[in-house]
Amino acid sequence: MKKYIIDEINVSKRLDVFLSEVDKLKTRSYIKKLIVDGKILVNDKKVKSGYSLKLNDIVSIEDIDEVTSDIIAQDIKLDILYEDDDIIIVNKPKGMVVHPANGNYTGTMVNALMYSHKGKLSSINGVIRPGIVHRIDKDTSGILVVAKNDKAHKNLSKDFKVHNLKREYIALAKGILKEDDLDINLPIGRNTKDRKKMAVTNKNSKQAITHIKVLKRYYNSNLTLIKATLETGRTHQIRVHLSYIGHPLLGDEKYSKKDNKFKVNGQMLHAMTLGIYHPTSKEYLEFKADLPEEFKDLLNILDKKENL
What we know:
It is built from 6 helices and 15 strands. By secondary structure, it is of the alpha+beta class. It folds into 3 domains: about 1-60, Structural Genomics Hypothetical 15.5 Kd Protein In mrcA-pckA Intergenic Region, Chain A (Roll), CATH 3.10.290.10; about 70-160, 2-Layer Sandwich (Pseudouridine synthase), CATH 3.30.2350; about 165-270 and about 295-305, Pseudouridine synthase (2-Layer Sandwich). The strands form 3 sheets. Strands 4, 5, 6, 7, 8, 12, 13, 14 and 15 form a 9-stranded mixed β-sheet that branches. It has a 3-stranded antiparallel β-sheet with strand order 1-3-2. It has a 3-stranded antiparallel β-sheet with strand order 10-9-11, covered by helices on one side. It is globular, with a radius of gyration of 20 Å.
């Protein structure tokens, strides 16, 4: 039996399309037969193959061959900040993909976890994403929580669903933000012109709230260092919100024009703080990950320019 919890990226996808993507099954007709035969359930109920997936739906699959051969265990050192019988707190480096997907089947955090924790991860989300409760983008560095068993995974997923946690990011935004504190409450949905991008839109969107606090303004470099606190957790939320108000993140070529002035690769965005309630003890735990060296080095350069 395999189980998948539907995240925001897969919301509104047809069930058969989702399964053909994550499990690489042979044909859509084969998937349809499994659904009709009751081998694939959503929230423990039979649905049609065209069922539109909803956030946190649980898709259960039985009698389908596992694809463990597709996931290569790799001896990649991970920066583990904390670990117990239920969770692992990982400080993901910039440039690492969280789990295998099209174009990235090796070198991911899951490849590393399969080497160091094989057989010790939640089975929810199957062999492609074992233990993965949430994600951050490839070029975003910082903290992630990984579940080591199904009970922990389900409890953490519930907290993420109701936003019963703390998520703080540090970022460098282009331009000088005028306000010291800013609350952005703008709905986010799939970009209708580019399905790989998200956008501020009222069409097929969800409420998205980001709280911004200015930490430092770099007038000589036309950049602002900010802390962004997520009240909701939409895909690319900080990147989309900052771009929409005219202050895209430095290095974010998806939501901004290419700018090599500071020679950074990928958005300058770091998931610094994660506060969660432990899935078993219910104790509040808060973890922090220091800024990566690239980020620190750039801030030193910006500080020197300000003092000229």
